């Protein structure tokens, strides 16, 4: 068990715990408010979220990459500054768009080729690119790039998808380790 996760109670297969992050503690299980492009729909401010006890916010890697752009968010100081949020942020991997934008994508072993739903431009996202984008966003918790197959996909397709996602997970881990070591090395020289 990770030193960042503390198991508080177990009842059968149900568990209650605390996940400690650099931006605060998350009580699990938890409901995550979704701010697809770093904002909750319906004019809910970050102050409103704090007021209702929101522990963690979920932002969408693909959508932020497309608009306003992860490099812009990085220049502005990352998602926490961009959305005025001091608590944990989880960024999904972009993998759900592999499912939801099925008519605009092509899956290959190296990653997924998308056509932007906004302006039609070509976008490529693989495990390394997903980790790069999430790193630019400076989220608290970055998810590994995955493929979400349709619930009506046949068993063979689902198995191939799980196998591909497992290979992509290994590539995500290598990329995040590389980024971590690069940042540590850069810190020594600055």
Note down, in words, how this protein is organized.
The protein has two domains: 1-30, no CATH class; 34-189, TIM Barrel, CATH 3.20.20.105. The chain is built from seven helices and ten strands. It has helices at residues 46-51, 61-66, 70-75, 79-82, 95-100, 127-137, 155-189, and strands at 5-11, 14-21, 24-28, 33-34, 57-59, 89-91, 105-108, 111-115, 122-125, 141-142. The strands form three sheets. The chain has a four-stranded parallel β-sheet with strand order 4-5-6-10, with helices on one face. Strands 1-2-3 form a three-stranded antiparallel β-sheet, with no helix packed on it. Strand 1 and strand 2 (14-21) form a beta hairpin. Helix 6 packs across helix 7. It is globular. The mean pLDDT is 92.
């Amino acid at each position: 068990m990770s030193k960042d996760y503390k198991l508080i109670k177990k009842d059968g297969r149900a568990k209650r715990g605390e996940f400690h992050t650099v931006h605060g503690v998350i009580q699990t299980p938890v409901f995550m408010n979704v701010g697809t492009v770093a904002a909750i729909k319906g004019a809910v401010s970050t102050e409103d979220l704090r007021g209702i006890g929101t522990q963690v916010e979920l932002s969408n890697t693909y959508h932020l990459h497309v608009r306003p752009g992860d490099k812009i968010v990085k220049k502005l100081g990352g998602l926490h500054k961009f959305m005025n949020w001091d608590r944990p942020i989880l960024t999904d991997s972009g993998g759900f768009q592999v499912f939801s934008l099925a008519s605009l994508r092509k899956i290959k072993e190296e990653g997924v080729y998308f056509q932007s739903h906004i302006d039609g431009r070509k976008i490529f996202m693989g495990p390394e690119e997903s980790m790069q984008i999430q790193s630019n966003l400076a989220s608290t918790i970055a998810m590994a790039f995955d493929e979400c197959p349709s619930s009506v996909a046949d068993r063979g397709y689902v198995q191939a998808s799980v196998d591909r996602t497992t290979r992509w997970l290994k590539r995500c881990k290598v990329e995040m380790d590389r980024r971590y070591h690069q940042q540590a090395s850069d810190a020594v020289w600055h």
